[in-house]
UniProtKB/TrEMBL annotation:
Superkingdom per UniProt: Eukaryota
Protein's name according to its UniProt entry: Arylamine N-acetyltransferase
InterPro entries: Arylamine_N-AcTrfase, Papain-like_cys_pep_sf
Record's keyword terms, sorted: Acyltransferase, Transferase
One Pfam family recorded for the sequence: Acetyltransf_2
Length: 216
């Protein structure tokens, strides 16, 4: 995950240009992200990770469709527009996500319900079950007693290939979807712990600790 996120950018240029719906077939994703050295968004990034883990003989990872909660109020509903993976390693289950452009761990997150909050270079993460949803949360940097939700997924609802196709199609074609009207790009530096972000005409560099070092 660490190597993936330091070498493949997050970007949605093809979504904004809207030449055609984004293909998330493994062949198309490999050609774009590896052969041509482009970036992509969550459906592309995590499809590539799923393909790589399968080729490395991991147990087949389980795709998860998520509702993004970052920056949303408790009463604000959101559609299923984010993809990540549940991966089995050594008898345990872990969350693996190389396609969330904001606050995100470059290491897997232990999904054991009894696991304590997990410190990572990017922040302190935990998962929490509420009703039928499992939430990934990060500790607020200003108040360690507060955790902020990144996204959630339906714990017991299976995610089929056609669900991913439909959610990807919505995310890259619907006029009101987040990625169709704004340009995003993000990359983690190869040689230092910095995140570089572009949102439309704004460029921001953040240290892993969250401090903004450059803003243009």
């Amino acid at each position: 995950m660490n190597a993936h996120m330091r070498n493949i950018s997050f970007e949605n240029m093809d979504v904004v240009i809207a030449t055609a719906p984004i293909s998330i077939s493994p062949t198309s994703v490999y050609d774009k992200l590896v052969t041509r050295g482009r970036g992509g968004y969550c459906f592309e990034q995590n499809t590539l990770l799923l393909t790589a883990l399968t080729a490395l003989s991991f147990p087949p990872p389980t795709p998860l469709l998520c509702r993004v909660r970052w920056g949303k109020s408790d009463g604000q509903t959101t559609p299923f527009t984010h993809m990540c993976l549940r991966v089995e390693v050594g008898g345990g289950e872990y969350l693996a996500d190389v396609g969330f452009a904001g606050v995100n761990s470059m290491d897997p997150i232990d999904l054991d319900p009894s696991s304590p909050p997990q410190p990572k270079p990017e922040g302190v993460f935990r998962t929490r079950l509420q009703s039928k949803y499992r939430y990934l949360e990060v500790q607020d940097r200003g108040d360690p007693t507060v955790y902020r939700a990144l996204y959630c997924w339906a714990e017991e609802t299976p995610c089929e290939e056609q669900d991913l196709e439909q959610s990807n199609w919505f995310s890259c074609t619907y006029p009101g979807a987040r990625f169709t009207g704004q340009f995003f790009a993000a990359r983690i530096a190869k040689d230092r712990d910095e995140r570089h972000h572009i949102l439309n005409d704004e460029y921001v560099v953040r240290e892993m600790g969250g401090e903004v070092t450059t803003k243009v």
